[in-house]
Design a protein that fits this description.
The protein is α+β, with helices and mostly antiparallel strands and about 100 residues long. Helices cover about 15% and strands about 35% of the residues. It contains two helices and eight strands; from the N terminus they run βαβββββββα.
Length: about 100
């Protein structure tokens, strides 16, 4: 097996905190469940989204988003969630 290094690219991301930066919900098409856990149906699947969590559509399908997850804008403008520990291990803030 050969080794590969991820190309250095600058991404945009924001950490989702319900009630604080809910503009992410509108920008991504994310479904925010607020105070009530409910079932959500997409084209091909049905999800139970717990109270206070969200559901975000991605190129690979929908993902449940928990408060504190980072929402990353990919190189083609797509958006996807990333857990805080993975984000911290993978990304560093860009120096101005």
């Amino acid at each position: 097996m050969r080794s590969y290094r991820k190309k250095p690219i600058v991404i945009q991301a924001e950490q989702w905190e319900p009630g604080i930066n809910d503009h992410i919900v509108e920008e991504t098409g994310m479904i925010n469940r607020g105070d009530l856990g409910t079932g959500v149906s997409t084209e091909n699947h049905h999800y139970f989204v717990p109270a206070g969590y969200g559901l975000i559509p991605t190129l690979e399908g929908a993902y449940i988003v928990t408060p504190g997850d980072w929402i990353i804008v990919g190189i083609k403008g797509e958006r996807y969630p990333c857990k805080p520990d993975i984000f911290e291990a993978t990304y560093g803030e860009e120096e101005s």
